[in-house]
UniProtKB/TrEMBL annotation:
It catalyses: 4 Fe(II)-[cytochrome c] + O2 + 8 H(+)(in) = 4 Fe(III)-[cytochrome c] + 2 H2O + 4 H(+)(out). Component of the cytochrome c oxidase, the last enzyme in the mitochondrial electron transport chain which drives oxidative phosphorylation. The respiratory chain contains 3 multisubunit complexes succinate dehydrogenase (complex II, CII), ubiquinol-cytochrome c oxidoreductase (cytochrome b-c1 complex, complex III, CIII) and cytochrome c oxidase (complex IV, CIV), that cooperate to transfer electrons derived from NADH and succinate to molecular oxygen, creating an electrochemical gradient over the inner membrane that drives transmembrane transport and the ATP synthase. PANTHER family: CYTOCHROME C OXIDASE SUBUNIT 2, CYTOCHROME C OXIDASE, SUBUNIT II. It is found in: Mitochondrion inner membrane. GO terms for biological process: ATP synthesis coupled electron transport. InterPro entries: CcO_II, CcO_II-like_C, CcO_II_C, Cupredoxin, Cyt_c_oxidase_su2_TM_dom, Cyt_c_oxidase_su2_TM_sf. The chain crosses the membrane at residues 37-59. This is Cytochrome c oxidase subunit 2. Its main location: mitochondrion. Binds a copper A center. Pfam families: COX2, COX2_TM. Its cofactor is Cu cation.
Amino acid sequence: TLMIVFLISSLVLYIISLMLTTELTHTSTMDAQEVETVWTILPAVILILIALPSLRILYMMDEITTPTLTLKTMGHQWYWSYEYTDYENLCFDSYMTPPLELDPGELRLLEVDNRVVLPTEMSIRMLISSEDVLHSWTVPSLGVKTDAIPGRLNQATLMTSRPGIYYGQCSEICGA
């Protein structure tokens, strides 16, 4: 892409320098409909040729065909339900810890009673939906934000690069 942009820029610079240094004596070049058509259509074709491989790469980056772990996430009002679909009967609800039950050093509105445990350096597929109203499943430190919509199954892929505690948070006004 950089090479194409460099060639186009060089051509435009060459044409500008020619126009500034020579006299325009040919009236046929001043009124050329074909040239105007070509220099309007050619950049559009070049932009499409640049965009198509980028769109393919963008789509391929988001698709994981064989994830190590699949985690189904269901949004409810005031809590989330998680289910490890690769294992039988491994599901739980995750409620926010009330402010009066927080230990010193714990973060208000971020601590939960049951945390999700995810492996590091492995591809994880998150299947996200909602039971009641619109929600948004967000973990800012992982760069993940996906809407949970009733009746729709959204997919997000993530990979943790280092072990630690990653906090999710409410990032939108949830509702009908």
